[in-house]
Structure formats: structure tokens, C-alpha cells
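Archive record
______________

***
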Amino acid sequence: MWSFCLWIAGGEKARVFGNFCIPMDVTNSQDVFSGQNTCGALLQQLQVIWDEVGESEEERDKMLLQLEQECLDVYMRKVDQALKSRALLLMSLADSRAELASLLSALGENTYAALPDKSSGTIKEQLAAIAPTLQQLCKQKEDRLKEFTDVQLQIQKILREISGNSPNGEKLGMLVVDQNDLSLQKLDEFHVQLQDLQREKSERLHKVLDFVSTVHDLCAVLGMDFFGTITEIHPSLNESIGVQSKSISNDTLYKLFKMVESLKEDKRVRLQKLQVLAARLTDLWNLMDTSSEERELFRHITSNISATVDKVIVPGALALDIIEQAEEEVERLDKLKASRMKEIAMKKQAELEEIYAHAHMDFDSAEAEKKIVALIEFGNVEPSELFVEMDDKILKAKEEALNRREILEKVEKWMSACEEESWLDDYNRIYHGLVETLVSKTRAWEEAHGIQFTYDGVSLLAMLDEYTMLRHDREEEKRRQRDQKRFHEQLTTEQEALFGSKPSPVRSSSMKKMVVPRANGGSSNHTLSRRLNTHHHHGSNNGVRSVSRDGKRDNRLSAPANYVAIAKEDAATTFSSGNDLVLTSP
């Protein structure tokens, strides 16, 4: 065992006990106990206590050896702690240098001007020298990491929006950033990728908005609920949600495309159906002569009868209720069609019968009506076809009537002349009877009274005799004119047979009319009176006077009693002389 002295003071004697040096001259225990708590003082105090107790040397040596061992253990622990502390400082220095290298590599810094000398100074000095640089690089890494996180979060968000995997409003998952490469070059690559994705997002958003606008317009024309329709694809397509929050995923774009195609097809089908109904309505209206006021009520239906799909943009123009309205109107008109068809067909039939009757053509109207009714009731023919056929018949009948008009006009003149001639024959019989009765009664009156019966101063019997002679002369003249006209017409017919038809010459001679007596005294009466007066001035067997009592003639009573008959006869004469046909009894 090695030994050394722990306490030496002023050359005093000391006792070496083991590894301790204990002063031998300890006379005042109070001084010992009042000293500082050093190892020597404590040993002296322990020696005093042992002396007072009477501890044996052997026991004292044992205790001092134990105390020595405990002191060695304390020193050994301190040395071990110092070694560990140095090792930790060296490890910390190595870690700091490794971290510095890692930061420089991650940040893409090949050289760094503030790096300290690796071998100068103690360990703590080297740690203290490298700490600011390391702290600055850590701060730079933290900022760079934040930039990477932001740009990658934006990229991840857009990618999720495009893929449609993340519903709107859902938080993004944990982002893992590669901290081994936080260089500016890598950050620029992410920014370029982000710009490309933002451009793609903008294009997709533009497509989505175009599709949504198209769906809106189509729903308006078709009368559909736009919000209900568009939100079936994705809730974010509602107009109340911001533009940037709308879904731009492939699935959304595909569904929008399919919906637009479906709505366009619905629009085409509905327009085609509405145009068929509009054409049907127009045919029924024309068929039943519907008024313009009633047609105006369905103008919103017929206005698109010839429009193309792209031209129909009025909201609600192709709504289901519009089509249902058109269908109901067509159904209603179809029900009225049968009765209306009969009415229109009978109207056209009556028009056809009138044409045939006016043209004096033979036509079995009862059989025709029976056939029309059968066709309508059994539905063997379309109304338009039936009416077109009847219109063709009416047109042909009119053409045939027009071809017969010239002959029919002459037939009518002939029949009129025949009726007039028959009337004249009846009138002549009545006239002769009347004259004979009048002469008989006049003579009986004259015999009974013994005087002449005068009329305006003229003998009535002489007047009757004279008028009979004038009538006979006129009849002879009319027979002569009829013979002359018959000869002229026969000559014209022969010329037409030889040289063809030509315009008839002006029939000025045939249009001349004989003078008809007037109410205030006509030429015939004047001639009759003049002849009677002349006969009176030259004398007569009856001694008739031609003037009244005051020597003046009364014009108001100058017409004979049969004046009306004379006028009728003269009119008949004029008619017969002016006609182109030869008047013969039928």
C-alpha cells in the first residue's frame, strides 16, 4: 500500500496511518473541532473521538482502510464522469460536424464561407465555433422545408382535385417531404410542376364552367331543374359554391360531358316530337278551318316547326308541359275530326253539287254522299287525302262548267225566249178575247144608247179597229225579221264550217229595238191618234171627232185601254229581235 500525507502544518509531527498523515500532537480537541471541515481536520476529529472511546489500533486501521477505499471510489467515479463527458463532447462535435455536412448537402451548398477550422481549440471551443453556423443552417433548412411543404401541399391538393380522391373540404393527409434534398434546384422543379398543374386546373375549370353553362341553357330550354340536375354530378357545381372550389376531376368532366350529350339528345328528340305535333296541329287546323285567334294560342308550339336544334334557345320552349299541351290539343282535335270531316266534306259536296247543277250536268249526289260518309266513319282514308280528292273534283267540275258556259248561255237565252214566246201566245189569246168582248160590249152599248162610245173624243170602235190593224202590221214585220235573222245565222254557220270560227260582226241591226209606248203617250199612241185624227178630218162613217169639247186634246188620257198589253208586246218584239238564237217553241 502506498501512503502520502494529507496534512502538514508548521513542521508538526504527524503519524502516517495508511494513506493518511495524522498530526501526533493533538492536545486541544476544541481547536480541532473548531477548524474548517477539511479531510485533515475530519481525521483529527475522528482520532480524538477514537482516543476518547479507547478504540484499538486494529479497529482504527480497519476504519481508515475503509475510508481510504471510499475516497478512491469517489475519485474513480469522477474520472469516469470526466471521460464520459469528454466522449460526449467529442460525439457532439462529430454529430455537429455530420449535421453540418448533411445540412450543406440537403440545402445544396457545396461550400460554406462561415465554416470553422476543424482542429483548432479545445472540444468546447470547437463546439462553440460550429454552433452559430449550425444554427443558421438549421434555420435555413426549416425555412426551406416550409417552402417545400407549401409547394408540395399545393401540388398534392391539385392532384387530388384532378383525381377526385379527396372530396371538397376534406383535409389532406400527412405530407412526407424528402429532407435529403432541399436544394433550390429541387424546389424550382416543384414550382414548375405546380405551375403546370395550376395551368391544367385552370383549363379543367374552364371546361367545367363551359359544361355547367351548357347544362344551364339546355335545362332552361327543356324546362328542367338546373340545380337538381347539376348537383347530381357533384355538389360543388352548385352556383352558391365558389369557382375555385368546384370539382375538376376526370370523373366530373366525364359525367358533365355525358350529361351534355344526354340533354342535347333529349332536346333533339323533344324538338322532333314537338315539330311532328306542330305539323299535325297545322294539318288539323287547315282541315277544320280553325280561326287565326285560336291558332295564336299555340304559336309558341308552331313557331319552332321548321327550326333547327341550335336555334331553339327560348327558356321552356321544349318543356314537357308544352309537349303535353300539344299532345292534348292534337288528341282533342282528333276527336273532333270525324264530325268536322263530315261537315267539311258535306260542304265541299254541296259546292260540287251546286257546280254540277248550275252547269246542268248529271250527278248522283246521294251515292257520292254515302261513299264519303263510309270512308270517314271507317277511317279508310286520311282527311287531307279525301279533301284533296274532293278539291280536285271541284276544280275539274269548274273547268267542265267553264267549257260548257258558252252553250249554256245560249240555252238559257233560248229557254227564256221560249218562255217569252209561250207567254206571248197566252197573251195574244187573252188579248183577242178581250178585244172581241170589248167590241161586243161597245156595240151593245151604242145600240142601247143610240150614240157612239168615244174615248178622249175618239170612237172606241174605230180606235180598236185601227190598233188591230197596227198590231197586224207589227206581227208581219217581226216575222220578216225572224226569217231574215234565220237566213243570216244559217249563212254564218256555213261560213264557219268552211273557214273556221271568227268574231261575229257587230249586230247593230239586230240590237235595234222597236219604239215602245211611254206612260205620257208614246209613239204608237201618237201614230194611232194621228191616223185617227186624219181619218176624222177626211170624214168617216162613224163621224168620230178627234178633239175634246174645248178643242184641246187631253194627253193624260191619250193611252188606249190596252196600253200595258201593248208595252209587253213591244218588249217581247224587242227581245226577239235582239237575240242571237232563232225563237221557236220547245
Q: What stands out?
A: The beta strands are 14-17, 20-23, 454-455, 458-459.
